[in-house]
């Protein structure tokens, strides 16, 4: 487990993200409401929720790709909620990203070597040093050295995701935002990529903000878990607690909705789920909420 | 086109890439090589015009007008005694230069505007669009005539003006290309890396626009030449410069005396424009085929053994005795796609299984395992170029694919599909037509298949919608697909699948696109309906949890082959095949968090 005294790397306080509404004087669309999270060095915070819950938006806000309306995002003590492009460039050394879709996150026109060298070049690292580093990176993510001169389309989904991970690792960042990095992968590939994420964390002490819709994935890789629902964080805490004895009704539903690979245990889980849904409905009715 | 048809599915990336082998492709294309040769000769002539031409462009020998070709004047002389050949040579230079000028002006305006407008959108984009619309609405010829009246008969001025007039073409082309990649994740990744906008545009976005710009430029040069020659032919050119258009105009005045004066410039114009159009086409062909990749591995097995085994399996058209009671029986099925080199790439190989009435069979496998191809061969919905290379499929005691059949016989399947075999797709939204209401999409098949009246079908559809757990059937019936959620759309499709009381439902990853809480509800619905109606179900999925929830029996597929089959408990609890073991060990449920998944399973897994 992570030492509780580990320094806080990233903290998000009372964050609100709004997108301008469509049309004249339209009400802005509020994607995130009052988000509070923090990540310590070497820690993984899993962010789980269904589509449209705002989990991806939160990751993008940390990366500076979503507009911060209110609240602060602090990275290593500096407020980065409205960082300029120049500050972002300095920040990119410590803050990186792995996206969901390994097919569109790599430029199809660039060779893998150039893709990996790009972040190095921006930080002013010389060509020779950068070539050595690229070789190192390919080795670290388990890709062959001849990948340098090849195009992304010559690789499978899992291999492309390894390239994307290598790009994120290029500058030895302190935090990597992982936006559904294994959702597009096959089961066995997913297992191998998750192993890679864990191995990298063990070797480098990097922190992850790990966004996924899959509670099993999040439980497997996270120290702490935050559950998002309709733009809010409804529950957060240690992974073992949140993913086994959740308190919030939505998390409870989410946990029981994920089927287990055994017919008899699944039957029990199904019965539990139906009972839970029924109880929650009764509670809602008693509380006077229209169903 | 001399290239083989692309054999690999599109890679899911937008944007065309200009690469070194593109040049090679253009040169191996007969159209391309002809165009390149013609244009190269013209360029050489234009550059060395002074050395090639025996006379100056306006050198006139008044004593020798409208002369026939001879040793001194290779192509004769015109009405002023000027050497036709020399004027043709100088004309090449001016014509080509003016075409390039025109394209350059158009690119210089359209390309940056398109890049900025497409990348930043916003105000600049609105203004640029407005200007574009105005430019496109202007009558080009009239503008050119006005400019000639104002600035005098200069080739250069008119070509600059024409360049401005056609710059919207470049603007629109660039803007569309940029907009399509602006939100690609690799652009986001570059922004996270702190790349400045100008470098993002230069490195990541410009590469996408490059190819269409090259093609467009070839076409634009051709158009520029024809417009310029046209203006000069009308007598609006500068009579003191030798261009093809001026020569054409000159020749036309003497068409009864020396018709050949018309021939040479006409020929030159035709050749130049033709070569440019051919070049544009060749570049486009070369770029569009650029995504062809040779299949390196997987499934490239010789088809000889397959054919052998097929010869030996010739059976009469009646199904094998003792198998009639199976609702569906797939027997040693092989499906393949012919390749350019004459071989057949097998995607399904020697697959056998059966489904009984009231039974749920799960087909499990990863992408590329052939599970969907198997499902589509049962439905008879394989692409046209697919071949059944081996085996048979029988439904309710009759062959739908008899042994020896090469393709699915549609006449046998059409009466079954929809009526007795129905289908639930993976993507609920893309399987509903956005132009029709949900109700009409449910009613139409019932009217056709069941032969009932529209009123009856409507009543049935409303009942079905209620049956699949939709609380407000009448409202959903009248709604358009975009007005309902993904889970709701999947319920509608399930209602459609059971509407004609089928015996077999094939569900291809029916819950993969749904949120996990919605998935649970849809699975409940499927289980409930299956038990109530007693239908057979084939559930294609990659998720063992879904299998555990619904299936009675399971087949596991890998690379087109069936690796294991058995009752659900047996497969999930005591799998025998190493691949099934690997798959199950990749499941995260019940695993110790933060431990290696694959490394811990290494002992038993060979895949």
Automatic annotation (TrEMBL), chain A:
InterPro entries: AAA+_ATPase, ABC_transp_ATP-bind, ABC_transporter-like_ATP-bd, ABC_transporter-like_CS, P-loop_NTPase. GO terms for molecular function: ATP binding; ATP hydrolysis activity. Residues 10-255 form the ABC transporter domain. The keyword Methyltransferase does not apply. Signal peptide: none annotated. SMART domains: AAA (SM00382). One of its GO terms (biological process) is transmembrane transport. The keyword ATP-binding applies. Keywords: ATP-binding, Nucleotide-binding, Transport. PANTHER family: D,D-DIPEPTIDE TRANSPORT ATP-BINDING PROTEIN DDPF-RELATED, TRANSPORT ATP-BINDING PROTEIN. Belongs to the ABC transporter superfamily. This is ABC transporter ATP-binding protein. The lineage of its organism: Bacteria, Bacillati, Actinomycetota, Actinomycetes, Micrococcales.
UniProtKB/TrEMBL annotation, chain B:
It holds the Pfam family ABC_tran. GO terms for cellular component: plasma membrane. It is a multi-pass membrane protein; Peripheral membrane protein. The chain crosses the membrane at residues 31-49, 94-120, 127-149, 155-173, 213-236, 256-279. GO terms for biological process: transmembrane transport. It is found in: Cell membrane; Membrane. The keyword Transmembrane applies. Residues 92-284 form the ABC transmembrane type-1 domain. Its main location: membrane. Keywords: ATP-binding, Cell membrane, Membrane, Nucleotide-binding, Transmembrane, Transmembrane helix, Transport. One of its GO terms (molecular function) is ATP hydrolysis activity. Residues 328-584 form the ABC transporter domain. InterPro entries: AAA+_ATPase, ABC_Ni/Peptide_Import, ABC_transporter-like_ATP-bd, ABC_transporter-like_CS, MetI-like, MetI-like_sf, OppC_N, P-loop_NTPase. Residues 298-314 have a biased composition (Basic and acidic residues). Gene3D superfamilies: MetI-like, P-loop containing nucleotide triphosphate hydrolases. The keyword Nucleotide-binding applies. Residues 298-318 are annotated as: Disordered. CDD domains: ABC_NikE_OppD_transporters, TM_PBP2. Belongs to the ABC transporter superfamily. This is Dipeptide/oligopeptide/nickel ABC transporter permease/ATP-binding protein. It comes from Cryobacterium lactosi.
